[in-house]
Amino acid sequence: MAEAETAAAAAAEEKELPLVLLLKPLPQFFDEALSKKFRFLKPWDDSSVPTHLFLTRHTESARVMVCTPNDSIDSATLDCLPHLRCIVSTSTGVNHIDMAECRRRGISVGNVGIAFSEDVADYAVGLLLDVLLRISASDRYVRRGLWPLQGEYRPLGSKIRGKQVGIVGLGSIGMEIAKRLEAFGCRIVYNSRRRKPSVSFPYFPNVCDLAAESDVIIVSCALTDETHHIINKDALSALGKDGVVINIGRGQLIDENELVKCLVQGEVGGAGLDVFENEPHVPQELFVMDNVVLSPHSAVLTPEAFSSLLQIIIDNLDAFFSGKPLLYPVE
Predict the structure, then answer these.
(1) The CA-based dihedral angle spanning residues 259, 265, 266, 268, taken in that order and rounded to the nearest 10 degrees
(2) d(CA 102, CA 84)
(3) CB 38 within 8 A of CB 20
(4) pTM greater than 0.85 (yes/no)
(5) Active-site residue numbers?
(6) Can you tell me whether residue 85 is helix, strand or coil?
(7) 277 — alpha (psi -120 to 50), left (phi > 0) or beta?
(8) What is the rounded distance in angstroms from the CA atom of residue 320 to the CA atom of residue 316?
(9) In the predicted structure, residue 16 carries a pLDDT above the cut 50
């Protein structure tokens, strides 16, 4: 009798939890924590029903959605959800969401704000140090047993102090990168959609001009129609044969074919890449280059970042259900 009452109470409590739509599974850690506060509509629970049909069947109840960067939230998806009023993204970038269509339909969108900023900034600096000092290349040299056979590793690395670093996108991540590199004795210049009155760093409205004045370019802007291939052949040529490119934004921010050509032909000095145009596929030409450091889109993969992300998702959902502004609304 007691067990039946407990089960009934649990079912009643679950029924009262706010309802949230998920298009794809979240990591188990997230799912367990979020399920204590919310109940979920999960299309994958019924594999016999196509996703669009599942959404259409639940159109009345789906008012808020949590989506990942792997979800494509386009007009066709939104057509199935006429009562949707809020999308909570688990990423900083929202290029997987049709923002214009959301604005037209009155759907608010929230991202993770600064949850990843410090971790990504650390990673960007780590990539730069690795490229300049040839840390990964030296590690491979030792592991292959070449030190006793061929002597000291060549070529030599390059110091970071005194480098002029051009940051493309001086948002929360870009500012964290700038703070760290100032401590290394670097000079900071930047490009952004507009000049930031509160920032004293020299501003370049044109990326090619920025590249021409920089030893290093770090790409940390959002991916939009305007920033697609913002680092193109002209920008790479302006950076020059000793210049280094670091990308911790999105792969499509750089014209990858042109970057590979410049690296192969020695027209750019090196690169540190955490993101690529056609992930998880990486141009094979890059595999043999000791002046290139590659990583599998892992700049945000720290326990601390995941904890921050989980809390922001909860806070954004709580704000929606209580009629308050989202913690990090995307304008």
Answers:
(1) -20
(2) 10
(3) yes
(4) yes
(5) 250, 279, 297
(6) coil
(7) alpha
(8) 6
(9) yes
